[in-house]
Amino acid sequence: MPYPADRKYTKEHEWIQVNGNAATVGITDYAQESLGDIVFVETPKVGAELTAGKTFGTVESVKAVSDLFAPATGTVTEVNTDLATSPEKVNKDAHGSWMLKMTLKNPGELDGLLSAADYEKFVAEEAGH
Amino acid sequence: MSSVQAPAIRKTALNAVHRQMGAKMVEFNGWDMPVEYPASVGCGIVNEHMAVRTGVGIFDVSHMGDIRLAGPEALAAVQHISMNDASKLAIGQAQYSALLYPQGTFVDDVIVHRLAEDEYLLVINAGTREKDFNWVRDNTPQFDCKVENLSDAFTQIAIQGPKAVNLLQKLTDADLSNVKFYWATRGKLCGLPNILMGRTGYTAEDGFEIYIPADEQTSARVWNDVLAAGKQFGVLPCGLGARNTLRLEGRLPLYGHEISDTINVWEAGLDRFCKMEKTELVGREALEKTKAAGVKRTLVGLEMVERGIARDDYKVQDESGREIGYVTSGSPAPFLKKNIALAYVPAEHSVVGTKVKVEIRGQGVGAVVVPTPFYRRPKKA
Question: What are phi and psi of B109, to 5 degrees?
Answer without folding.
Answer: -100, 150
